[in-house]
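Researcher: We're teaching a course module on how sequence relates to structure. For the next exercise, students receive a sequence and then see the predicted structure as tokens, so they can try to spot secondary structure elements on their own. Here is the exercise chain.
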Amino acid sequence: MTKTTIIFGFGLNVMACSTSHAQSGQAAPSTKASAAPAVPTVEVVAVTSKPLNTVTHLEGELTPYERVAIFARASGFVSNVLVDRGSHVKKGQLLLTLVAPELNAQRAEAQAKLSGDKATFDRLNAASQTPGAVSGNEVETAQAVVQSDKARLDSVRAMEQYLSVTAPFSGVITERDVHPGALVGPSGSGNSAPLLRLEEIQRLRLTVPVPEGLVGAMTEGTPTTFTVRAFPGVKFKGIVKRTAQSVDTKTRSMPVELDIDNTDARLASGMFADVLWAVKRPAPSLFVPATAVVQSTERTYVLRVASGLVEQVPIQRGETQGELLEVFGELKQGDSVTRRGSEELRSGMHVNIRSSQPSVPPP
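Model: And here is the predicted structure for the students to work with:
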């Protein structure tokens, strides 16, 4: 009797548990179907408009204001070198001298020919005073020969002047590749290396490749500061003077030159400079928080919110000013955009709005 009662009770418990599980399994779908999708809440900020006034870092290179490779104009042997690497020279100063024995021979020959032809012309000219003695054509021919001899002699003397090599401008000799006794000649006669290199260093050019996106924001005459590794923490000044007016198709940048006063000779050509490039635009720009921009694999956009609906607006990035980012696109001042962009928010989605103000960038 006791054994039968226990089995019957166990059966009732199993049936009760099965019934409970069946009821709970039927009730779960009903609860899930009745739950409505949650509407996301987003924080929005207003698109602001104000002038762009910021600074970006660009790299530049210092080059001499003027530089020249000095070759020999006439062929000859180096007689004397009066300068060396690092020598400071003045315009017109004698740098080196050459000797050319063949020029001496050519000058002596030209002088002898001129003397003989001039004597012939003098005799014919004197004889022409007697009517019928010589023809006028003979006198004119002799006179032309004399003029030709004078021109040849002048040419030889001009070549002799090239035996003295002088500085075309004031500067510093940066290279010397010649010594006394060397046979030298014009650059096209097999002498590829220059005798000397001269650079003007009291003024320097700072060449800065400005990215294409910043070309419209620069103006000539703008003062600029820069630093070099040789003098950490020291700021040097320059003025924007020249622009190439042409964008390099390989680097997508435009070379811009600044004039640098280097009378103290602290800077040297070839140095790299970190330029603090001021970025300004002629008209105010639109700004949004940098976190509002969404960068997907297909495009860059912000999420504009109007009447509780989301719209993806494609934009182009500009410069950063404090915590704000300059943007270009179909936006206007006062538009509401989400403070934090998300790829999960699609155009046409409903959202709840929580307003806020963008952070004010430091002055």
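Model: If you want an answer key for the exercise: The domain at 56-64+198-280 is CATH 2.40.30.170 (Elongation Factor Tu (Ef-tu); domain 3). The radius of gyration is 44 Å.
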